[in-house]
Amino acid sequence: QVQLVESGGGLVQPGGSLKLSCAASGSIFNRYVMGWYRQAPGKRRELVASITTRGTTNYADSVKGRFTMSRDNPKNTVSLQMNSLLPEDTAVYYCNAHSVRSTSNYWGQGTQVTVSS
To answer: Scanning 26, 27, 30, 113, which has its CA 20 to 30 A from the CA of 103?
Structure first.
């Protein structure tokens, strides 16, 4: 079992920055691929960024060059630095943990990000 708790969401103006954090507990953190997903009203949940156990990152085309994901295995945390935010980045952002050794998959409760002037 893995418990995930997101923090760092909020209201920001277009062009601004936010940093999301996800704290994991309950299992061996470095056995999980971590991801950030988002879901806007009326839309499907989509992958924003992911990071492997060794730190290789992958980004959705819509956020490349603006968002940076990182992980700190000793601290059991992942972060998503979001720069140059756009109104279309508005969504609930979810932290995800997917085991590399099984089909186990876990979600956090989500944190709201609103980009508006």
So the answer is: 113
- Give tens-digit pLDDT for 78-100: 999 999 999 999 999 999 999 98
Asked if residue 32 lies in contact with residue 2, where contact means CB atoms within 8 angstroms, the answer is yes
What whole-number distance in Å separates Cα of residue 16 and Cα of residue 21?
A: 17
Q: Can you tell me the mean pLDDT for 62-91?
A: 96
Instruction: Kindly write down the DSSP assignment for every residue of 37-67, as one continuous string.
Output: EEE-TTS--EEEEEE-TT--EEE-TTTTTTE
- Res 113: pLDDT: 98
What is the per-residue pLDDT across 12-30, written as a single tens digit (0 to 9) for each?
A: 999 999 999 999 987 777 8
Is the distance from CB of 111 to CB of 6 less than 8 angstroms? yes
Asked if residue 78 lies in contact with residue 22, where contact means CB atoms within 8 angstroms, the answer is yes
Answer yes or no: are the C-beta atoms of 66 and 79 closer than 8 Å.
no
